[in-house]
Amino acid sequence: MLESCLPRPEILSGYTSLLDGAIINSVVLQIDPEPQHHLVKLIGLDGVLLANARARNFDAIVRNLRNLYEEELCQRVLILPDCSVLGHSPETPQGLEQMKLLLILLLGAAVQCPNKELFIGRIKELDLETQHAIVELIKQVTDNQSLVLTNESMEQLTPDMMYNHLLRVTKERDQYHSNWITSFTIETEVAHNNGPQRINSMSPSSAATTNGPDSNHMVVELADLKSKLRKLRQELEEKSEAFMEVKEELEHKTSQYEKLRTESQEWYTEARRSSAYRDEVDVLRERAERADRLEVEVQKLREKLSDAEFYKTRVEELREDNRTLLETK
């Protein structure tokens, strides 16, 4: 993934080549040639001092990326890599996870910065499978509101998502506080071994003063999130009440529906019965009409029969007259 952002991919010799932050910072410089925070040199350092220096380097990289997202891209990064883990235990599963998060944010910034055509062109030179994998990683930044929040995606945030973000912020606050205490304790022990002057220079008040702006920023952000959470809870209560009203109305409508369905079933039965009666009426009506026609025909036949009797009688009379005439002759 990182090879697509490097002008000379051969300098990336493995995961360990990323641990000092120099290669990642070279990509950041391509995105923003004038960053606000700069890396420190690690030459001659070892042990805890080396780990602390690497953590400061990653902190500078993360700060520069955050500034780039906020000032250049007008986006808010919701999850930042834990620089303490990257500095002290980068090869642990937690360290690998934090490094992956850092590289995803770096890639998301690269394809959205003013020099994005350069990075997109390098990505297109890779094989299709790698391109598809990189696109999926980019979508985690551009399409998923869990890593980076844009102004357009604010309207898509649900109460559940806001609540999960708030829980994550509080957990990160507790984790950062624990890491700060651990780091301060270690540095105090190192300073104690090197002399009392080091202890005085690393007093809690000075450390707190150093981290004051970030702490104040986190407090303000946390207060803002708590305010939003209260509003969301109030909205949730209102929607719950509306839901109960709708539920009661639905139950009432369901009861009416069952009643109407029963009546409809009865009407359907009556309709079928009426249909059967109607069929019988049609048969009887047809028979009645047929009987009327037959009666008319019978009447006509009776009239014809009466005429036939008349003609028969007349024929008999004529025969009798003929016989009488013949006898007279």
Biggest sheet strand line-up: 1-2
Within CATH, the superfamily of one domain carries the name: Calponin-like domain
CATH architecture of one domain: Orthogonal Bundle
Strand content: under 5%
Q: Based on Cα principal axes, name the global outline.
A: rod-shaped
Q: Care to count the β-strands?
A: 2
Oligomer: single chain
Task: Find the CATH topology of one domain.
Answer: Actin-binding Protein, T-fimbrin, domain 1
Sheet with most strands: 2 strands, antiparallel
Number of helices: 10
Description:
The protein has 329 residues and is mainly alpha-helical. It has a domain at 2-157: Calponin-like domain (Actin-binding Protein, T-fimbrin, domain 1), CATH 1.10.418.10. It is built from ten helices and two strands; from the N terminus they run ααβααααβαααα.
Labels describing this entry:
rod-shaped, mainly alpha, cytoplasm, Actin-binding Protein, T-fimbrin, domain 1, two-stranded antiparallel ribbon, about 325 residues
Strand and helix layout:
Layout: H1 22-31, H2 47-72, E1 75-77, H3 83-88, H4 93-110, H5 116-124, H6 128-142, E2 148-150, H7 159-194, H8 196-201, H9 204-210, H10 212-328
Helix pairs in contact: 1-2, 1-4, 2-4, 4-6, 7-10
Summarize the structure in short:
The protein has ten helices and two strands. It is an all-alpha fold and 329 residues long.
